[in-house]
Structure formats: structure tokens, C-alpha cells
Specification:
The structure holds two protein chains of two kinds.
Chain A lengths: L2 E4 L3 E4 L4 E5 L13 H9 L7 E7 L7 E7 L5 E6 L9
Antiparallel strand pairs in A: 1-2, 3-4, 4-5, 5-6
Chain B lengths: L18 H10 L5 E5 L3 E7 L4 H10 L10 E3 L4 E6 L2 E6 L4 H11 L5 E5 L4 E7 L3 H6 L16 E6 L2 E7 L6 E7 H15 L11
Antiparallel strand pairs in B: 1-7, 2-5, 2-6, 3-4, 4-5, 7-10, 8-9, 9-10
The chains are: A mainly beta, B alpha+beta.
């Protein structure tokens, strides 16, 4: 079970949250100009690192805010949590 | 049509049938666990920008500032304002005061980007008091409820036995918690509380 530090509510049980996939995937500037392959890449292709991964979580049961978490996919250690719009940490 | 069907419907709280069993647990535990429904409290959902003029207007209308620190409660003599999110609060008042409160708040925020909604029927409130209140809730709540982390003036939306609840610490003079649960979950939460309380009751057969 993860203990996720919500930027508003503090550390809470993983069961209170909803997972939202990889963070910082920008919406295409001009979606209509994309080829089918480029559109499919935007929709379906995500990083799959072994190590730090920036991802979105929503504190569904409480403040209902979306925010970002950097989690190590190998150890499940939560390295950082920050609000939408805030700059993410530099993790080497 | 009989005469009584023409009467306006009186509001019925979701846990009205549990009053006897709550009282029995309170008695049988010698007050170590106090359970009681606080039925039909006025509850208003207030949504606005905490930094905007609407927040000021609400403060003047209620004589109570909406708390901006996450998971805290602000009290006045008549009201409690519970933080639910950075732009969302639950204002709780005495039974029957919802319509007047809604009117006052709506007038205060008129013209601003804000929403005031009477949600009194959405949740009911259970008072969980007594010396073992914290132990009782700890059986099913993942939060650290130690007074150091969750004392008077704190609130949190969390889970109790997997049901979403809104938990608030009462003030210093009356230790314990208010447990606000959705009306549709209230029966389940009440059954769970009664079951969890058997541990603190000398003779469990006296409460079933």
C-alpha cells in the first residue's frame, strides 16, 4: 500500500486516490493537423521506465484535486508530489 | 385519499431506527463509547475562490471566516465551516436553519462566481464520543487520529471501513468526533460502528 502525500491533505492511504496515468503529456497544439499515427502516439503511447515516473493522481475521496507524483516504479517510493501548474522536481 | 397523506412530509433522519441501539452501546460500555445520531443538521455546500471577494462576503454574512488551511474546521456559536477542498466548504448549522442560511449566503455572494447549495439531505451526522472513541474509529480508519495529528478543529474526508466519511474533531471541552456519512451509507456505517463497539461492552448480548 502506498502512502501518497496529497499537496493539500498530506499523507493519505493509496485507497483514497485515483490513478491518472503519465503526467505532462501535452495536448497537441493543432490536433487536426496530426496524422493517424501521430494521434495514436499521443493517445496510446506512454513511457514505461524502470525508475522515477511522473504521473497524475486524484485525491478522489477527499479534496478531489488532481496533482502530480514522481514515483519510482521499481521500488514504489514516492519521490515528490506537487500541484498542477507547479514545476516538477529535478530528479536525476 | 386519507387525511394524513395530505400533511406535508416530516423529514426523517437516515439513522432514526438506530437510536435505541446507539443508546444501548453507550449504556453498556459505561460511556467508554458514546454513539448518537445528530439528526437533520443544516448543511450547505459553499464553493468559491478563497482569495476572491466572495470569501470576504461570506465572512461578513456568517461572522465566520471559511478556513483556508486544509482539513481544518472554523467554529462560531451557531455554525461550523469544514474545509473540503481549496474552493469547497461544508457549513453546518442547527436543524431547520438551512433555508435561512442558504438565503443569507446566496445574498452575500450574489454577483460573484460562487455556488451555495443546500445539501442537508446528503449526509447525516453521528457523534462518536467517550474515552474509547479513537480506538473505535481506528478499527476501520486509515488516518492517524492521535490528538497530536488530529485534534479539535481538524477535519478530514477519508474512509471508515471502506465507506467515504467526513470526520471532524470536536472542540477541547467535549472530546470526540463528528462522523458525517452519506445518507445511503449511513446504515452500513452505523452497523459497522455497533459491531466495532462490542469490544468495549462488558456484555455484548445486551446490545443486540
Amino acid at each position: 500500500m502506498l502512502l501518497i502525500p496529497c499537496p493539500w491533505c498530506g499523507p493519505r492511504d493509496e485507497a483514497e486516490f485515483t490513478y491518472g496515468g503519465q503526467a505532462h503529456v501535452p495536448y497537441p497544439r493543432d490536433p487536426a493537423a496530426l496524422t493517424d499515427e501521430e494521434w495514436a502516439r499521443y493517445l496510446f503511447f506512454r513511457d514505461n521506465p524502470k525508475g522515477p515516473h511522473a504521473e497524475r493522481w486524484c485525491h478522489t475521496i477527499s479534496c478531489r484535486r488532481w496533482f502530480n507524483v514522481v514515483r519510482d516504479t521499481a521500488t514504489n517510493e514516492v519521490l515528490a508530489a506537487y500541484r498542477i501548474g507547479e514545476a516538477g522536481p529535478v530528479i536525476s | 385519499m386519507t387525511a394524513d397523506t395530505e400533511q406535508p412530509l416530516a423529514p426523517v433522519s437516515p439513522l432514526v431506527r438506530y437510536a435505541g441501539r446507539f443508546a444501548a452501546v453507550t449504556r453498556a460500555s459505561g460511556g467508554a463509547v458514546r454513539l448518537a445520531e445528530l439528526p437533520l443538521l443544516a448543511q450547505l455546500s459553499v464553493r468559491l475562490d478563497a482569495k476572491g471577494p466572495a470569501a470576504e462576503a461570506v465572512r461578513f454574512a456568517l461572522g465566520l471566516a471559511l478556513p483556508v488551511e486544509p482539513d481544518t474546521v472554523a467554529f462560531s456559536d451557531e455554525l461550523a465551516a469544514l474545509w473540503l477542498g481549496p474552493d469547497e466548504w461544508l457549513v453546518v448549522g442547527r436543524p431547520g436553519s438551512a433555508a435561512g442560511l442558504e438565503e443569507r449566503l446566496r445574498a452575500a455572494v450574489a454577483g460573484e462566481h460562487a455556488a451555495v447549495t443546500d445539501v442537508s439531505g446528503q449526509r447525516t451526522t453521528v457523534l462518536v464520543g467517550g474515552a474509547r472513541a479513537r480506538d473505535l474509529l481506528a478499527h476501520g480508519c486509515p488516518l492517524d487520529l492521535h490528538p497530536r495529528a488530529f485534534g479539535p478543529g481538524r477535519c478530514a474526508q477519508t474512509t471508515l471501513a471502506r465507506a467515504g466519511v467526513l470526520l471532524a474533531g470536536r472542540d477541547e471541552h467535549r472530546p470526540g468526533y463528528w462522523l458525517l456519512t452519506r445518507s445511503s451509507f449511513a446504515g452500513y456505517v452505523a452497523d459497522w460502528l455497533l459491531d466495532a463497539a462490542t469490544e468495549y461492552v462488558a456484555d455484548a448480548t445486551s446490545i443486540t
